[in-house]
Amino acid sequence: MKIILITGASRGIGRDIAINLASEGNKVIVNYLKSEEQAKSIENENIEIYKADVSKRMEVSEMVNYIIKKYGKIDVLINNAGIDEYKLFTDITDEDWNKMMNTNLYSTFCVSQEVVKNMIHEKYGCIINISSIWGIVGASCEVHYSVSKAGIIGLTKSLAKELGPSNIRVNSIAPGCIDTDMNKNLTTEEIKGIEDETPLGKIGKPLDITRCVKWLIEDEFTTGQIISPNGGWVII
Ligand code: NAP
């Protein structure tokens, strides 16, 4: 039984990971911000929900302190909360840029920093940062999103080197196109286009990412790696 914190787990990929890991007997803390009803709908004896904006240090600090006080430790941290935005580079405002960096990249830095203090003390930890295929290859009209996700990859590799001696593994998952609200603006034709370009002929489901997360939690010799479940859409 592990104590697991998942950020942004009221919907989509995080929600699927939470339900799955809790069903195996782990204690899962589901962080959310706006989707209270959806978060409440998965509350059970193994899932506790906690509202906090992960782009704000004070709220993150209070959340992590609460969990450590109640459960004594956090074994696994999954930095999953994220937003995306489709905009021409020339239309991205400073406000758009800062919101993207704070929500996707600063949150990963901030939550990890708060949690790692306890993991170092425990001499055990597993951190999984959810990046994106766009953090590896870049996306047109998603420059700020791609930069934030590329930053997560740099953070993952550096932190893995620094925390390895404390028995803390840090890895990243960089999904391809996954069927969640994040892609609800794509038309049926656009989805079909992606499927046609993908060797496995389909887009992914949240469960495809959950399986990857479960493997990274179990494995004891993988750190600093970027794994990209993407159906072969991008092969590097
Ligand atoms: P989603 O369905 O839109 O869910 C996003 C989640 O992030 C929601 O639970 C949302 O919570 C939470 N969130 C956003 N801002 C937050 C904040 N400031 N504080 C706390 N929680 C916050 O997206 P998804 O597809 O599951 O994406 C999950 C992760 O996978 C993201 O990092 C995304 O970039 C990455 N990813 C997704 C895809 C894809 O194709 N879907 C591909 C590559 C990478 P509330 O609704 O409660 O505010």
Characterize this entry briefly:
With 236 residues, this protein is α/β, with parallel strands linked by helices. The chain is built from eight helices and seven strands.
Describe this structure in words.
With 236 residues, this protein is an alpha/beta fold. The protein has a single domain, classed as NAD(P)-binding Rossmann-like Domain (Rossmann fold), CATH 3.40.50. Helices cover 47% and strands 14% of the residues. Helix 1 links the parallel strand 1 and strand 2. The mean pLDDT is 98. NADP nicotinamide-adenine-dinucleotide phosphate binds next to helix 1 and strand 2.
Tertiary shape:
globular
- What's the total number of strands? 7
Q: According to CATH, what is the topology?
A: Rossmann fold
The side-by-side strand order for the widest beta sheet comes to 3-2-1-4-5-6-7
Succession of helices and strands: EHEHEHEHEHHEHHE
Structural class: alpha/beta
In CATH, what is the class? Alpha Beta
Task: Please state the average pLDDT score.
Answer: 98
Query: What CATH architecture label applies?
Result: 3-Layer(aba) Sandwich
The tally of domains stands at: 1
Task: Give unreliable regions as ranges.
Answer: none
Rg value: 17 Å
Largest sheet descriptor: 7 strands, parallel
Name the CATH homologous superfamily: NAD(P)-binding Rossmann-like Domain
List the helices and strands and how they pair.
Elements: E1 3-6, H1 12-23, E2 27-32, H2 36-40, E3 47-51, H3 57-71, E4 76-79, H4 94-122, E5 125-130, H5 133-137, H6 143-163, E6 168-173, H7 188-197, H8 206-218, E7 226-227
Parallel strand pairs: 1-2, 1-4, 2-3, 4-5, 5-6, 6-7
Helix pairs in contact: 1-8, 3-4, 4-6
The structure holds NADP nicotinamide-adenine-dinucleotide phosphate (NAP).
